[in-house]
Amino acid sequence: MRIFDPHIHMTSRTTDDYRRMHAAGVRAVVEPSFWLGQPRTSVGSFTDYFDALLGWEPFRASQYGIAHHATIGLNPKEANDARCREVLDVLPRYLAKDRVVAVGELGYDSMTPEEDDVFAAQLALAAEHELPALVHTPHRDKLAGTRRTLDVVRESALEPSAVLVDHLNEVTVGVVAESGCWMGFSVYPDTKMDEGRMVEILRRYGLDRMIVNSAADWGNSDPLKTRRVAETMLAAGYTADDVDRVLWRNPVEFYGRSGRLELPDTEAPEGAQDHELVGAGATFMGNSVLRGARE
Amino acid sequence: MSPTTSTTTADALEQVRTDPGSIDRHFAAAARTAAREGLDGDATREALLLAVPGDTAYVIGVVRRLYDHGDAAERRAVLLALPALDALDRPAAIGDGALPIVRDALRTNDTRLVAAAVGPYAATHLDDDTWRQAVLKVLFTGVPVEQVAGLADRADDELARMVRDYAAEREAAGRVVPPDARTVLAVTEGRDPHTRPHRAH
């Protein structure tokens, strides 16, 4: 089983996690830039962090046979601190980098006017740099925040298929399904979403545009939740090909829009459909498939 | 404005020749553009750097900025391009002006950067203490010692002592001494430490 975790904060995880993830089938990850628990107060803290996401962290991941990519952006929490606003000025430099596969995490935290401005400005940057956008939905006032998120996306230059709206649940999935955006789910030990509920949502809404992640970070989280969802899908009667679609081909299709994925040469499961995205060629959609990648 | 997927390597080189400030955006996208054209990313990045017009101080400024602003692959490409940028027949040869980025790379734990930092440029310009520490770091981090340029010319008695101590520490712990440590010791045997050549500038 091959797994692509499309949202995981590896900076906060140990090398033991990389080992366990590889053993569980994880071969590729996307690490969105976000806040670090402790608020930052200057642009320099951000550039050192972004540099780590494009330097040390991919190197560390490669030691354990995992391909690491990043999304870069000014997160909604820190968008509210005027001292961090200069981050917008350095973003174009980062959005030009290899392995930067989206702008993100963007979106709302407290739905302030500052968050409105920073969100819209970064969607414009995504369009300019030919990148998709990863959008976080707020923990508080979630449905209203999700609706407002979709309004801002509609007013942007990005088409809905270039936007992944994340951290959805039973209450917010419906409006995102109707919008044409991709639907992301963060499967956590206690909060947001669990694997049983996840499979119910897949049953109700189908597998199109569905993205499942562990969003593991410095909080109570589990980097193997993607694998647990795969097992729960199989136990519920989904096929190995269905699992491959949700946990590999869907995130590859979404982030592959960037043309900047660098994937290991993985094996599709028996009977896999849609060979275009199975990863058979040396390149597809402008992305690289690395032959002989370290296993 | 970033280069889009329609920008070619030839376009990028031409723009850098006439507008050297454009190298920042072309350098970041160079490996993707090169891959689409069947070219090598590192060679393309070296060509972009060699295309920068201007005097020595200006070229050094570009080299250091691209390294500081680069991701790991860009930083590695800058390090690999240093010998070409320092070629004696270049009017704006950089001399030892890029040593700060070599020292930065040697402080990292990324073996790709460490390996790229111990090339011919380091052999020519790095001071003895830093160079010896770099060789020891190569042994520690498992970078193949063949990556160290000028090893036979620069290895001296002090390096031999450091490597012998390293080997003794490994043996005391019951750990394997890497064969590369023996290689370094072998090249220092029977050598006169005072005949080490240094390039004049």
UniProtKB/TrEMBL annotation, chain A:
One of its GO terms (molecular function) is metal ion binding. The keyword Metal-binding applies. Coiled coil: none annotated. SUPFAM superfamilies: Metallo-dependent hydrolases. The keyword Plastid does not apply. Keywords: Hydrolase, Metal-binding. Pfam families: TatD_DNase. Belongs to the metallo-dependent hydrolases superfamily. This is TatD family hydrolase. It comes from Terrabacter aerolatus.
From TrEMBL, chain B:
InterPro entries: EboA_dom (IPR047715). It comes from the Bacteria. This is Sugar phosphate isomerase.
